[in-house]
Design a protein that fits this description.
This protein is an alpha/beta fold and 256 residues long. Helix content is 30%, strand content 25%. The N terminus is likely disordered.
Length: 256
Amino acid sequence: MKTRIVLTALTIAVLVATGCFDIGNFAASKIGVSTRNFNEGFPAVFDERQLENPIQKNIRLIIIDPGHGGRDPGAMATHIVDEEIFRYLEKDINHKIAQILREKIIEIFPDTKVILTRDLDDLVSLESRTVQFNLSNLFSDEEALFISIHTNASINSNERGFEISIIDVIDKNNNANDFAKRVSLEFTNIFGNELPFRGIKQEQSYLFRNTFVPAIIVNIGFITNLEDSLLLYSEEDLKKSSNALFNGVKSYINSL
């Protein structure tokens, strides 16, 4: 099979112009604003007393953040395989996986509130994506989770695999690290060697600095790599990624 990979100039332009590229690693974009507010029913107050008792038992709230949106497409790539053209917009991949994940969580955990930071193809500011206001509505034996979904990109088309970023704000119990490990295990269980694991990384992003619950950013493969991109194209393949995320959520919940 003759395979030709085309990485558009527009891909590189977006990576550089948005400040999202860091030597082979594509991070969450930090542009744009939005007036949308998804925290209806949760007062915008953070009660630091919630951090005094990090041992938590019930997941009451899960926030799913499909990265990018609207005029911020995230990473973009085009691949040509046997004269068939495959075009990718990161924002669309993130949103589809998030929607599937939300429905699965609602089905299996009906008592858990699930929020998407964006339901449509619109741009939501980083400020609106953070969840610090939610803790004031949680009891001492309740916990929230934050999952930000992204794909990676690189000027090196050989870069591939999935990775998870964390900052553990409840580090006495290492909750975020445990959550990330469970999610990574489920991705490996589903994809095996098809999607290599690049590790769990510490990150000091705006999202993490302003999110006071166990939070992870999952970069599900490089859309600039042909092999990875083909795992992110069809509806069936996107279900695999959402199932890996769901199984990680379920494993974490069952461990509490």
